[in-house]
Amino acid sequence: MSLGQHLVELRKRLMIAAIALVVAMIGAFFLTDPVIYLITEPIRLIAESRGEDSAVELMFSTVTSGFDLRLRMALAIGILLSAPVWIWQAWAFLVPGLTKREIRYTVGFVLAAIPLFFAGCATGLWVMPNIVRLMAEFVPEGAAAFYEATYYYDFVFKLLLFVGVAYVLPVFLVALNLAGVISGRDILKGWRVAIIVSVVFAALATPPADVASTFILAGIMTLLFVIAAGLSMLFDWRRTRRERRSATGTPL
């Protein structure tokens, strides 16, 4: 296609993705109440543990902060709900320029990355109450603890996003291996660094007293790294075998 045709195709794909996002945001706006209830569970638990002598509440400091919070949540949830549409539109725009092998690798990357990202978000949601309760322990006895709604949501959202991306990083290592940037042996050589990073991250994401959660989270991240290194070494072995057969004229 000519450049003009590419631009027309891009505009078409972007319009479809934008419409899907807006529709998903409208639906997500009505889901904000249960989501707010879910992520504020730690605040209610802290309030129960501290008793009536200390106020522990979610705070909306401006007239429009309640609406602003729901709008931001609707955007985030809408992006997730409309993901199948905008991912497909991006895929449909890129497919004509990809080879069969690149298409196969891309499909494998997406199918692996999406569930890992959501698994990471679920893990972040699992450890989030522990972090909130740990930070609440530093509030002096008898003092009020008011959690500003927008700041609290940003904290939860960034935590889920960070853990979700951390779970997807092994997939990027495999992608770099397939692209020939790094070998499986080079990835495996970094196992010490991977273990240290996993343990430090898990220790920061879980309270010191919850040793089990720390080891579980660190173990999951280390296991994902080992799987990525193993797959990369397998791909290297298959690539080397194909090159040897091609050099000797042996049928593949």
TrEMBL record:
Cell membrane found in the keyword field: yes
InterPro entries: TatC
Keywords, alphabetical: Cell membrane, Membrane, Protein transport, Translocation, Transmembrane, Transmembrane helix, Transport
Compartments it resides in: Cell membrane; Membrane
Membrane protein topology class: Multi-pass membrane protein
Keyword ATP-binding tagged: no
Transmembrane residue ranges: 12-31, 73-95, 107-128, 155-179, 191-209, 215-235
Function: Part of the twin-arginine translocation (Tat) system that transports large folded proteins containing a characteristic twin-arginine motif in their signal peptide across membranes. Together with TatB, TatC is part of a receptor directly interacting with Tat signal peptides.
Family: Belongs to the TatC family.
Subunit structure: The Tat system comprises two distinct complexes: a TatABC complex, containing multiple copies of TatA, TatB and TatC subunits, and a separate TatA complex, containing only TatA subunits. Substrates initially bind to the TatABC complex, which probably triggers association of the separate TatA complex to form the active translocon.
Record HAMAP family: TatC
Annotated protein name in UniProt: Sec-independent protein translocase protein TatC
Gene assigned in the entry: tatC
